[in-house]
Amino acid sequence: MLHATIESHKQKWLESPACTASDLLAHIRKTGKLRDTQIEAIETYLFLKIVGNNQALWQLFAQGFFNARPDLDKLNINHHAREYLRAHPSAFALFDFVRKKNGMPALVPALESRILDAPEQIDYQGIIQSIFYGVNYADYLMSLPMGAGKTWLMAAFMYLDLYFATKEPENKAFAHNFLVLAPSGLKSSIIPSLKTIQNFDPAWILPEPDASDLRNQLKFEVLDESKSAKKSNQTRNPNAQKISQCLPNPFARVFVVNAEKVILNTVDFETQAQLETEDTAQRKTGNDLRELIGQIPNLSILIDEVHHAATDDIKLRQAVNYWSSTGNITTVLGFSGTPYLAKAEEIMVKTGDMQFAFKFREITSTVYYYPLVTAIATFLKTPKVKIAQNLSRLEIIRQGVQDFQQQYGGHVYGNGCIAKQAIYCSDIATLEEQVYPFLTTTLGIPDTEILKFHGGNAQYSCPAQNEVEFRTLDLPSSTRRFILLVQVGKEGWDCPSLTSVILSQKGDSPKNMVLQTACRCLRQVDKGANSIKPETALIWLNQDNADTLNAQLRQEQNSSIEAINNITRGSDAVMIQRLSRVDVLQLPPVDFFQMKIAYEALQEDADARTGEKLQRLAQDVKSQSAAYYQAALVRTGELTRMQDATLQTQGHSGFDVASFSAWLRLISKESFELISRADLDAHRAALQSLFDCITSPNSKPTGRVFNNQYEQDLIRSRIRLAFSVTRQLHTRVDTVPQSAQLLLAEKLGNVPDSDSLYPPAEAWQTIATLDSQTTATPPSHSPIALPADAELQAAWQKACDDMPEALRAFTPSFEAFKRKHEAEVSDGLPVQHRMSSFHYLPYNFGGSGASNFEMRTLQMLFKLPTFQNLELEIYYNGERGLSEFVIQCYKQTKAQGDKAYWKNIGKYTTDFLVVQRETKTKRSQTQKLKKVLLLETKGKAWANDEDFKDKKRFVETEFLRLNAQNFGFPQFEFLYLQDDATEVQRISAIERKLQAFFAN
User: Fold this and answer.
1) Least packed by Cβ within 10 Å: which of 113, 524, 734, 964?
2) Any idea what DSSP says for residue 587?
3) Is the pLDDT at 34 greater than 70, yes or no?
4) What tens digit of pLDDT does each residue of 532-566 get?
């Protein structure tokens, strides 16, 4: 929220003569030991410490520290409000924060109006404090991705504070001591990595002899003793003893502690109010550890993986607030790979007689942010991602292991460590009973190359030696190549030689941590090696984990796999801030009718007709119907180039031994014995035929194995249903009116700059400028127009006449001259048609999966005379999640010869909407759209996708019929364009459709 503004102010400070840290920063860059992102974070830290005087963010905000200072005289506000805002920085800061600007809607429209109507009645300080969580101390979040060096950055901040503290001992802005808090439940993975702070060399950031002097003074205390119960006294609490022994005036002490075990469990927050009324002696007796931490002078608190504090946020915040009340807290620093929350946080504030709600997905205390996409483009390993569809757990593991062995089997990094692969399992039983035996017995991997690490349970234990080996995997002495893990190694695991990760099934990683888990193998091993030969990694995912990864990239990184695909090694990920133009265009919502289906099941026939059903099932299974058979597909490609992935299909996979008798027993058992063995034997021939189809011979002549490409569970279910009575599914069709906004402006995030953005930067910036200068509603089309053929003919003829005789033979034809001219003016098309398109800027065509077909289609429509003459408008609707106009689709199908019913087949989002307004001369968001053409553009490769074909059929038939029936005329029409058609064919199809639909 503030990090972009802070970056702008920081850069001005760095370039000014007033920058007192310039020599120190020059030394840091000269040593070359830190990455650019670490140095940038240090610059931000020093800027807030020195220029911001280490104040709380709300205080800086209220003082106008972050104000951009636009000219108040140019704002369309009343005189009283203007003068009040000019005289009160906090009022102007809040108003500028919530107001409508840059084409985006107001953050809190009611608060904006209240400030303008009665500015003196607002509690500005109270509202601003609430936005920043109500804390009165410096609380800053540094967001860097995994592998960027957060732990060393912590060490750098410690040494910088100590360096300035030795120069200015009385300056409260700089800490003398430090408390490092690991989040609840992550001690086993994070606290060991935090101990690497001890290996940081302060000479990388500080001049000598200061660096050596401070390193000799720094002392670590890891508070990991088990006796830290509530109300424990000093004699029974060894952690408290460690603190007590260094009081009253420690210097350069670092206390590393697990928040849940040592802090949160020692604070009785239920009696907090009572404790505040107790005298000092009672509080010391009641909770010695809490009291002792509060006595550590000039203490800076560093919280690693701070986004995990959400579950204990209230307790953690109360603990820090209590220590802050002692006056000893200098700064609270949070570190996280993402500044975004999984769910938007709502902050309610009340001022006077009104209450307002703020909603933030970004953690408001974020002062520095370095995206994952930028890290992949610069220093992290470049991953190759393989997504397996319709493969079992063990088959994915088999292919993933073999792929790893082929690519990295003999790979040794420059530090002497061998490449390693982590295989995550959902539970201990799966690891011990399925995955481990499969690796050793089936794949023949020596036990000496496998390490199992988990917490153990009543049935399976994990030797203590395994944890020691897990902690030392990144040493040249380790011979383990395959690491089998359960609920560990997801965050904080610092093992750069980890080269590959396998997540074969849903649940192998907690859903909210798939991104962190999949990226464990991206850490850089040899710094600087990427400039010569980029390091690579291998990630195997099943489809469920791949979908989750993509969703988390969007939520936590404001990015996507498609965005990452546009980043190449060594490039800078320039982020483009997009803006809404809905208000400028006065674009009304789209009114339409949606089909809604209600389902009912009724028993129809008491006769099971088992023989007929088994016969039909056998026919479907043997024909490899998509309902029962899925050919496995493996997509292989780089994470940054997944659009170029290669595809490979498989027809058989599986290792489970198959027995016909055991198979029949399983069917009977799964029916709860309602289907007896005698019932099955009565149809033995049909069942034997099915069994032979869904199994395959193995290496032994008399043996068979199940083919997992067949839906084994589904086929057994259909067999059981064949013995049951027939029930017919009835559906009830309802019609639901809807009104859809074509842009959800709050979801219009930043995107990386790429060739898939349209219009080009210069054009959309020109449009934005023209929008800001427009005081009245402009005409639907700019007066700029393409010259007619006659004008071009005259210009061409004049050029020929002025040309020397000797060169006339080389003069291009008029058609060539015309094509060149059209190419020259094509860059002006977006500006020319700014009032007939671009409800947000810029459009991102890269997220739709096509190349530049959508972009070329849009440009082609702009040039059509029919489009201009009918005063039509066209809006891109294909970027998922930005539009409410989504059609719920159904397919009419039959259940084994019974009456047809409607089946939900998912949602359809058309690429473009070509619209015509009821009133052409006057625009208003309250007016209706008269007609809407749904324009779909598809690449040839996607044209035969069965899901798309079913949805297209529904839209072309039922959706159009339903809306025409309810509106009383055909308000909607549909047009499908495919990229393998010629340009003439596409232009002709569009022209005919525009004339037929809109002109009549």
Assistant:
1) 734
2) P
3) yes
4) 467 889 999 998 888 888 878 777 776 665 555 55
- Alpha helices of 259-302 — where are they, by DSSP H? 272-277, 280-286, 288-294
pLDDT at 728: 64
In the block, tokens 């840290």 appear at 21
Using alpha carbons, select from 742, 691, 700, 981 the residue that is nearest to residue 882.
742
Per-residue pLDDT for 235 more than 60? no
Residues 6+ apart with CB under 8 A from 114: 121, 122, 351, 354
Q: How many CB atoms lie within 10 A of CB 709?
A: 24
482 pLDDT band, cuts 50/70/90, is: very high
Structure tokens that stand for 62 in this block: 């209220």
Residue 273 burial class via C-beta count within 10 angstroms: exposed 0-12, middle 13-18, buried 19 and up: exposed
Q: Which class is 132-368 in CATH?
A: alpha beta
Mean pLDDT score, 809-834 = 62
For residue 818, which phi and psi values (nearest 5 degrees)? Answer: -65, -45
Architecture of domain 372-573: 3-Layer(aba) Sandwich (3.40)
- CA-nearest of 221, 210, 213 to 250 is 221
In CATH terms, are 132-368 and 372-573 the same topology? Answer: yes
Mean pLDDT of 205-223: 90
- Among 766, 613, 583, 630, CA closest to 687: 613
Note the maximum CA span of the chain.
108
- Of the chain, the percentage scoring pLDDT greater than 90 comes to 32
Cβ atoms < 10 Å from Cβ of 851: 15
Are β-strands 575-576 and 590-605 bridged in parallel, bridged antiparallel, or unpaired?
A: unpaired
**Pair 302, 181: CB distance under 8 Å:** yes
Domain borders along the chain are: 132-368, 372-573, 574-604+735-782+833-1000, 608-629+655-724, 783-832
- What average pLDDT does the chain have? 81
pTM of the model: 0.61
Please tell me the distance from the alpha carbon of residue 911 to that of residue 936, in angstroms, as a whole number: 5
Phi, psi of 632 (to 5 degrees): -70, 145
Residue 452 forms beta bridges with which residues?
A: 484
Q: How many H-runs (helices) and E-runs (strands) does the chain carry?
A: 39, 34
